[in-house]
Amino acid sequence: MDTAFFFLFNGIVYGLLLFMLSSGLTLIFSMMGVLNFAHASFYMLGAYFAYQISTHIGFWPALIFAPLIVGCLGAVIERYGLRTVHRHGHVAELLFTFGLALLIEEIVILIWGRNPMPYSVPSELDFALFEIAGNSYSAYKIFMMLVSISMLLFLYGIIARTRIGMIIQAALTHPETVDTLGHNVSRVFMLVFGVGTGLAGLAGVIGGNAFVTEPGMARALGTIVFVVIIVGGLGSLTGAFVASLLLGVIQTTAVAVDVSLADLVATVGITTSAADANDLMHKTLSQVAPILPYLFMVLMLISRPRGLFGTRDA
C-alpha cells in the first residue's frame, strides 16, 4: 500500500508539471486557434532565466521575474512574428513555431552551452516534509503541487469569471464585433499569447530545478505536452488537467513495474511461446513505459478523436 502511494504521489507531481506546461498551450489554442510547437522552448527559457536570476538575487525573485520575461518575449514574438504569419494560415503558423523552437534551442546552447546547469531547489524547501514507509516526500514537491493547482484556479477565474475573460472568448469567435465595441482584438491576442508563454516559463522555473535544466529539456517534454492536450481535448483546460494527471501516473507507475506483457495476457488465459523471448510480448512494462502515453493517444484518436473533454476533433 505504501509503495502504491509512493508511485501515485510521484505520478501526480509529474502530472501537475505536465499540466503547468500544457495549460499555457491550451490557453493559446482555445483562445487563438494556434498550435504553438515552440511552447516547450518557452518552458526551457523559463528554467534558464530562473537559473541566471537565482544565482544573483535568489529563487523567489526568479519565480516572479523569469515568467514575466518569458511572457513579454512571447508577446513580442506574437506582435512582430506570429501575427504576420497568421494571415497565411495554420501551416505557416506551424512552420513558424517549429523554426522558432529550433532557433531558441540554438540560442540557449550558444549562451549557456550544452552541459546541464547547476539550478538547484531553494534551501528553504529542500527538506523532507513527511515520510511514509521509509520514503521521503520533499517540501518542494508539495510546493510544485500547490503552484499547479493555484494556476488552474487562476485560469478558470480569469476565463470564466472576469470581463477580460469574456472579451477574450468573444474575440475568438466574433472578432469584428469585439473590435466594433472598442476592444483591440490584436492586443487581446498578444496578451493571450504572452500569458500562455509566461505560464510555460513558470513551469520552467518550477520544474527546471526539480528535474534538469539542459538544452534537451524542451524536446524531452515537447511531444508529451501535445499528447496531453490531444488526450484531454483540444482547447479544454479541464481535459488538460485530467489528462496530465492520468498520463503522469501511468508513465511513472509503469517505469517501476517489472511484469512482462506476456505475463499480463497470461492472466486472461493467453499464452505465448517461450522461444520468442526477444519479441515485444516479453518486454517488461518498465521497458515500454516511454511509449505508453503515445499508445494511449493513438487509442484515444481512434475511439474518441475529440479527446476526453474536447469540443472539436483533433
Give the terminus-to-terminus CA distance: 38 Å
Side-by-side strand order of the widest sheet? 1-2
**Quaternary structure state of the chains depicted:** single chain
Query: Would you tell me the overall average pLDDT?
Result: 82
User: Helicity range of the residues?
Assistant: over 70%
Low-confidence stretches: none
Word description of this protein:
With 314 residues, the protein is mainly α. The chain has a domain at 2-220. 71% of the residues lie in helices and 3% in strands. It is built from 13 helices and 2 strands. It has helices at 2-32, 39-57, 59-86, 90-112, 139-161, 163-173, 175-180, 185-210, 217-232, 237-255, 261-266, 285-288, 292-303, and strands at 128-132, 135-138. The chain has a two-stranded antiparallel sheet. The radius of gyration is 21 Å and the shape is globular. The two termini are 38 Å apart.
Sum this structure up briefly.
This protein is mostly helical and 314 residues long.
Any key phrases for this structure?
314 residues; mainly alpha; two-stranded antiparallel ribbon; 13 helices; 71% helix
